[in-house]
Amino acid sequence: MHIPDTYDEFSHFWANHQQEAILAYTSQKDSFIVGLLPEQSVAMPAIQLFYILEKRFGQTALYQALNPDFTVPSPVAHQKDTSWIKTVNMVGINVRTISSFFNVVKYSLTLPASQSSIHLLPIWECGVVASLYGMASWNINPEFYDEELARAFPHLNTVEKQLKVVCNLLHLTGKTVGMDVIPHTDRYSEIALANPHFFEWLQRKEFEIINHDANLHEKVQERILVFLQQFGAVVDIEYPKEPEVFFNNQLFPEEKRLQVLFGEKSNLWGRNKKRNQLISFLFNEGYEPVPATMAPPYRGLTVDKREEAKTIDEDGRVWRDYTISKPEAMSRVFGPLARFKLYESLDNNQHWEIDFSSPRKEVWEYTAAKYLGFAQQYNFDFMRGDMSHVQLRKEGTPANPDEYYDIHKYIKGVICRTKPTFSYFAESFLAPPNTMAYGVEEEHLEGSDADSTLGDLQSMTLGSETFVSAFARYHSLLKTCTFAPNFTIITADKDDPRFDEFYLRGNEIRMFMGLFLSDMPSYMSLGFEQRDVHFSPAPNEHYTKLYVFQLTEGPKATHSKYQWGKNAELFKGLTTLRKISEEICSAIANQSTQWLIAPDFTGKNKVIAWTQSEHPQYLFIVNLDTEHESEEISFKNIVEAKHLEHIFTSNKKKDITCNTESIQINLLEKGEYSIYRYQF
Prior knowledge:
The two termini are 30 Å apart. By secondary structure, this protein is α/β, with parallel strands linked by helices. The relative contact order is 0.10. It is 30% helix and 21% strand. The mean pLDDT is 97.
């Protein structure tokens, strides 16, 4: 099938050739719909989507998947453990950019079998500035409900039913699906207000923290009951008047407590109104959950007195930012977020010190039970651990971490008891020791039972010495650690005007390496396929990162829907690579990499070449230098092949000399990448 060249041609291609493209998919010739722009996929009518899925998978399978009481088995259900994620190519999706869970299924039609995993960014109701990472409750976010799907199938009349069916459909199409696991909530979330004892609190008066005692939550509990006495319960339920009973999940279940405090789950407007009233009541007395922090020293807060650190919200409340009292290079305070209090404090928290020998087991059990429920209800295959780089112990990772060493480790362990293939993908950046975490980050990841980790290649310009050196290190860690670093193409965090410089060139190489490094996982976020090159910042609506929030004012504001790029050159290049992956990836799957020219730890040599260790069939060559060509490349031929068949090159096809001793190439153009097949 001819692949168009320009954006207009791609736009017209779907109008003029969609039947041909759909037939190639429904007949299983292709694992994705070739030439379909992602922006066109999410605009596809539901009736057309279901026609396509029925033709490919059959009516029975489709209608089973559309039953929220039925669970389609995961594609990795036959696996024995969690290691499958160590070689998977994953795509992250901020559902807000495409409006609904249902549109994730439409978008997935553009992803080949070689990109077989979907990570859904946080799926819960949001709090301050509607940040996806500031959970306001454990309820699924109603903004991701799809009216079109409900009209087509009236029984799918809740966002929960729709999410279950979407997970079913993604599993039907061969994709694994993962959720975020977040160790914090919105600062005054329903979760925190219904369970003050699960969080750390402070009391502020203007510029001074006047109280941060270890058990300050007890005073907060008392004030919440006073609030109920003054303003009344929302639902007419008899409730205990003693804090030790009211806030006890065994004596008075959280579900009833939430009804008393905020009202029925179905009344989002009413719940938010009541929560805001309670927030004002506590805020006026100075009570705030202690904000989440990042990087050493983590602990010890002070009020930021600068005028620019003051915020006045629409209700007239004056908020103050916090800073770390003795900050280090990466120290940061996340004012709108509150982290679960996982350990007791030392000396009544007088010096902001934690007693790691005293885990607050009820908090661990509560959090793990919640995520276990989601994993079971929606049949999620893995978790992406948000802020997995947090390691609070000054002495670093202990030699034999117990189950209460790390909250992500604990949650994974609980879920794996019933879902032994449930994997843990960690958000950590493999930073130098004592930078993002105390101690060595690799040791922390191993101690917390991470299966794979994000890494930081997305934060570097491809071809730079920093990038090449980091990549060399990552592939070395792949061989020596129990977790697998990702070859990360782009993340939603990096699809931001501040980081445009990383993506000015070499974007096709990122996909090439992500797809064909068969022993290394990769990660790409939605929107990369069409992403325009931004030599200067584009309007905010062109960046997925800015849809993590919902802001209408300020430098991060957006005023309309997410705008897809029009980079036809990139989309054509990635489509070509995805088509090639259809032919190659099954032959190289799960094989380890045999380097013929290994990545250079110094970052100076920018040519790499590899084949497969167990059954070498293909040779891959890349010049990571996107600014300079490389001449007279020669390396040892370790395969008893007398000829190399040219499969693909990004530049002009050129001669390559192969004999039993060596392989020689006269010239590699800047940023050139090629594939050859060994001929025996």
